[in-house]
Write a structure and sequence with these properties.
The complex is a heterodimer. By secondary structure, chain A is of the alpha/beta class. Chain A is built from 13 helices and 11 strands. A 5-stranded antiparallel β-sheet of chain B has the order 6-5-4-7-8. The model of chain B has no long low-confidence stretch (mean pLDDT about 95). The chains are: A alpha/beta, B mainly beta. At the A-B interface, helix 4, helix 5 and strand 5 of A face strand 4, strand 5 and strand 6 of B.
Chain lengths: ~375, ~140
């Protein structure tokens, strides 16, 4: 018996979230410890014990093969889908499906990465005979900046998107970070500061680029029924979507738009049965300032090419009419290398009203969206305290 | 040609070996699907559009346009130069796109533009491996 995709709406809820005990630059902690701290904090937040967990989802250098042992959990459902930083967002969809199918009941989604200090980070990367090492790395792509920049340059060429507009995102995001005690970078910055910071990969200046930090993050997902018995207000999973199009950025289907995000967004909105005007707060993976701009277009918050004007005038800042990345984002709060889990943590806290000075008043529906690889994969998640 | 090229140096695989053998002769090969008519790059023995096995190698014209680019101000540590480099995504006249370096230009974004007409040149980096790179066409 099969059921419709849309019927999964609201069948599961996020009931616990947590970060590692510390975030930032942590040369005294391994990536695995960051996983474990985040897991403990998310379980405590959920009012659940480790023994309640029967499914583990993770991604990254430490895999689903490593975590059960370190955490002391024996999952009977194991999710290791690895498509880069948004993996944790699409793990929510996979947990929703598995819970709804009766394969598990309490799913742990865990992330831990020593992105800055590189403690307990298995070295992998691409072999000499990988497609990357044959067709991209010989030309001096280094890290994600130069790959993400290729879309930014084409977007600017076709639509007139400007460095000033990119800087608007960095400045607005820093204003949110100033209100988050866990954010690494909290000093206010100006558009001029962004534009006068050193160039990393055209058109990105240093302050257009996310941080590189050490941190962990985790979320607990369970059935809607069980969620209602737990202490905190459940945050229901209303819509999910995912898509992947390429691995090497040179194979991106188009550089002026983000096809994977268009697919993931359409699916999430369709399952949720909501309109864009229903969204109260947005958490968009901001690896570089262009990423949320192209996400806004791909997800349908504005027309193609209008992402630059959309973010202008500090529209995404505190007191703007489109609150985005209210934790300070990957640009100013934390970015380990795989930021996706942190969009979920902040969305849940906003919907529960736990965000103190940065609380978006009356927030009832949140959207999380992430990128994986180099615009390679996308995952979208719409959540709400109301079903 | 230097024996101390710092890398990265591609190591061919069975399906890419003909491409690298041709590059060594300063010939740019792409593939063509006899069933769906698609030209494509990078090399794969089955057409990525229709999964046909009726695929042939053809010599590309070597001409194309700079679809998009970046200037990387921080090249990787193991790289021949530590000065800014122009990384270009070239759309060949036949359609496929490939990542490359744009050479014979100032690495200055203000002096580059999308859709610039370019042509292939070859750089022998080891005895076995030659990289296709691109430069602006005369008058472009």
């Amino acid at each position: 018996m099969s059921q419709s995709y849309e019927s999964l709406r609201g069948r599961a809820a996020i009931v616990g979230v947590g970060e590692s005990d510390e975030l930032g630059r942590l040369p005294h902690k391994s990536a695995l410890q960051l996983h474990m701290e985040a897991t403990a904090n998310a379980l405590a937040d959920a009012g659940l014990a480790k023994g309640d967990v029967d499914a583990v989802f993770t991604s990254g250098r430490n895999t689903a093969n490593d975590l059960p042992e370190y955490l002391g959990i024996r999952p009977r459902f194991i999710g290791g889908t690895q498509v880069g930083g948004c993996s944790f967002i699409l793990h929510v969809e996979h947990a929703l499906a598995a819970i709804n199918a009766g394969l598990c009941e309490v799913a742990l989604i865990t992330h831990g990465e020593s992105g800055y200090s590189r403690i307990s980070m298995p070295a992998p990367r691409w072999g000499d005979d990988s497609t990357n090492n044959q067709f991209e790395l010989p030309y001096g792509i280094s890290g994600p900046a130069s790959g993400y920049a290729l879309a930014a340059t084409r977007h600017m060429h076709e639509y007139g998107t400007s460095s000033f507009q990119l800087a608007e995102v960095a400045v607005a995001t820093r204003k949110w970070a100033a209100m988050n005690p866990k954010a690494l970078m909290r000093e206010p910055i100006t558009i001029d500061d962004v534009l006068s910071s050193r160039l990393i990969a055209w058109p990105f200046h240093l302050l257009d680029c996310c941080l590189v930090t050490d941190a962990g993050g985790a979320a607990i997902v369970t059935s809607a029924e069980r969620a209602r018995d737990l202490p905190k207000k459940p945050v229901y999973v209303l819509g999910t979507g995912e898509c992947a199009t390429h691995q090497m950025v040179s194979q991106m289907p188009a550089f002026n738009r983000w096809d994977a995000a268009t697919v993931s967004g359409e699916r999430a909105f369709r399952m949720a049965g909501l309109r864009h005007s229903d969204i109260d707060v947005a958490q968009f993976y901001d690896a570089f300032t262009i990423v949320p701009i192209m996400a806004l277009e791909a997800l349908g918050f504005c027309a193609p090419g209008e992402g630059g004007p959309f973010v202008s005038g500090q529209r995404t800042a505190p007191n703007g009419d489109f609150p985005m990345n209210t934790n300070g984002g990957g640009l100013s709060y934390t970015h380990t290398g795989m930021y996706g889990i942190f969009t979920i943590i902040e969305a849940v806290r906003q919907l529960r009203g736990e965000c103190g000075p940065r609380q978006v008043r009356g927030a009832q529906v949140a959207i999380c969206h992430g990128t994986g690889g180099t615009w390679s994969a996308a995952a979208t998640l719409i959540v709400s305290t109301a079903v | 040609m230097s024996e101390t090229y710092p890398g990265p140096v591609p190591k061919p695989t069975p399906e890419t070996q003909p491409f690298w053998d041709a590059a060594k002769r300063h010939v740019l090969l792409i593939q063509h699907c006899s069933d769906c008519g698609q030209h494509y790059f990078y090399p794969r023995p089955l057409c990525p559009r229709c999964l046909s096995r009726r695929v042939t190698w053809i010599e590309a014209s070597g001409r194309g346009r700079l679809h998009t680019f970046t200037v990387n101000y921080r090249p990787p540590r193991k790289f021949p130069v530590q000065t800014p480099i122009v990384i270009g995504l070239v759309e060949l006249a036949e359609g496929p796109r490939l990542l490359t370096n744009i050479v014979d230009v100032d690495p200055d974004p203000a002096r580059l533009r999308c859709d610039l007409e370019v042509e292939v040149v070859f750089e022998d980096i080891t005895d076995e491996i030659t990289l296709p790179k691109f430069r602006p066409r005369a008058g472009a």
